[in-house]
Amino acid sequence: MKSPFGHIFALLIAPLVSLHAASPVPSKPNIIILLADDLGYADLGCQGSKEVISPNIDSIAANGVRCTAGYVTAPQCCPSRAGFMTGRYQNRFGFEANPPPPVEAKVGLPVSERTLADRMKAAGYATGMIGKWHLGHLESMKPYNRGFDETYWHPHGGVLFPNSKTGFIPNLYRGKNPVQEPEYSTDAFGREAVAFIDRHQREPFFLYLAFVPPHWPMQAKPEHLAKFAHIPDLHRRTMLGMMASLDENVGHVLAKLRETKLDDNTLVFFLSDNGGPTGQARSQPDADFEYGRNTSKNDPLRGVKGDLFEGGIRVPFLVQWKGHLPAGKTYDKPVISLDIAPTALALAGVTPQPEWKLDGTNLLPFLTGEDAATPHDTLFWRFRLPLPPANPGREGWAMRQGDWKLVKNGEESLRVSGIGGESLSLYNLVSDIGETKDLSAEQPERVAAMTAAYKQWDAQNMEPLWR
Q1: Residue (of 317, 292, 322, 287) closest to 305 by Cα position
Q2: What CATH code is carried by the domain that includes residue 337?
Q3: Which of 368, 390, 407 is where one domain is finished?
Q4: 326-368 pLDDT, tens per residue?
Q5: Cβ atoms 35, 209 nearer than 8 A
């Protein structure tokens, strides 16, 4: 005969067991990547802006580390995303630049490359992708076939307000299925990210959230435009309104982490995919748009999106992991978006294998101060515009070695920037962050040694898959 006390004891502890089972903290830290599109180096409050209102994004810097020499692998959307999504220089597999319209539907991130989502999923993480994809239109290249369990995505971005005729955002998908989304896309993407965190709060998750602002189309919500009525330039006012919406939705994500008590167990990256494309004002927000211009600011850097000067590849780069990384720290040694993958894998308990040939490094020991060395001795860039006919003047490259940067920016990018010439130039970025004084004539031996190092690196790369 069973004792009645055993039954009573079971009834008493059942609620406690249930409560414990309902709210365990994931055993591995969560990873969130927040990506802005075409954000200028100077266009956050924490980066010195007096115009941009970004308290939520700024809080990532206040609660973590602001990397003042944070780079991406290309000065353009697609190749930059291909680099950090694989943890490899995209030149390794021929993803040189945005695919031009004649081939865009047929190319993308090669299926031979494993993504960070593939590796995080294999490590037991729930994986989600929300926002702008821009890494391929073929079925095999869509995000739900590249390691992401859940996706709410647009093939190439460039959408903010719903279509005026249908009332919905065009070409938006949940997994394979088209969706009818009536909201401003920044709000929709923020909403979906919050829901993803809510669904997966009891297991480790990896979330990639790729917003559209401040990339074109230059469209802000009326209530955000009204906040900047004092800005006379309507184009800049619109960009600031778009940034206010971006910051608002980053705030929703951070608030959900606090609500679910996950902010101490979540590593958050915030960065831009490339530098800002500065430009001229337009007469009104719905005027015909000149491609690539959003009145962003890259001060004090030289150059813009599409350049291999600092303004094209050096971006806001913020990292937060409460209780683990120092709060309010600035870190001035060079880091790059390639480092996101090995850092995330380290938290997931995954040891990168030599055959993966990752190009980044785990940033955590450097950001905590445990390792006082420099994460990278040398960083490289190669960027060839896929415009016919083939023209060496359009083919730029650069490298940073310590404090020194050697750059051949390419004829087309130089023309866009309004700067003449196409020869190699050498700058000391510590004393001359604006790349104003070319020291190549004074240091020919350094130029020769750095050129040789670049050529050795470039010999390992593929020719572009589309030209």
Answers
A1: 292
A2: 3.40.720.10
A3: 368
A4: 999 999 999 999 999 999 999 999 999 999 999 999 999 999 9
A5: yes
Is 294 part of a structural domain of the chain?
yes
Residue 9 covered by a domain: no
Give the separation between CA 307 and CA 410, rounded to whole angstroms.
Answer: 8
Task: Give per-residue pLDDT as tens, 206-235.
Answer: 999 999 999 999 899 999 999 999 998 888
pLDDT confidence bin for 392, thresholds 50/70/90: low
CA distance 322 to 62: 10
Tokens representing 209 are: 């959230």
The strand pair at 378-384 and 335-336 is best described as unpaired
Question: Would residue 6 count as lying in a domain?
Answer: no
Where does 23-86 have alpha helices with state H? 55-62, 77-86
Domain range for 400 is 378-458
Print burial letters for 316-326: b (CB count within 10 Å at least 16), e (below 16). bbbbbbbeebe
Q: Does 20 or 264 have the greater pLDDT score?
A: 264
Residue 373 lies in a domain: no
- Residues 282 and 219 placed together within one structural domain of the fold: yes
Q: How many domains does the chain have?
A: 2
Catalytically annotated residue among 77, 154, 235, 376: 77
**DSSP state letter for 19:** H
Asked if 298 contacts 328 with a C-beta cutoff of 8 angstroms, the reply is no
Instruction: Provide the sign of the torsion angle of the four alpha carbons 339, 434, 305, 405, taken in this order.
Output: negative
**For range 364-384, the mean pLDDT:** 97
**Total-model pTM:** 0.91
Q: Among 279, 331, 316, which Cα is nearest to 39's?
A: 316
Q: Is residue 46 domain-shared with residue 134, that is, in the same domain?
A: yes
244 shares its domain with 383: no
Residue 372 has pLDDT above 60, yes or no: yes
Question: What are the φ/ψ torsions at residue 308 (nearest 5 degrees)?
Answer: -100, 5
Query: Catalytic pick from 46, 67, 78, 134?
Result: 134
Mean pLDDT of 109-129: 98
Clarify whether 78 is annotated catalytic.
no
Query: Edge-to-edge, what's the strand order for the sheet holding 395-401?
Result: 378-384, 395-401, 404-408, 425-428
Residue 77 designated active-site: yes
Q: 46 and 122 share a domain? A: yes
Place of tokens 């001035």: 332
Cα distances from 396 to residues 349, 392, 457, 463, in angstroms, run 38, 8, 15, 14
Residues near 306 by beta carbon (within 8 Å), at least 6 away in sequence:
75, 76, 277, 292, 312, 412, 413, 416
List the structure tokens of 359: 């190009």
Higher-confidence residue: 17 or 304? 304
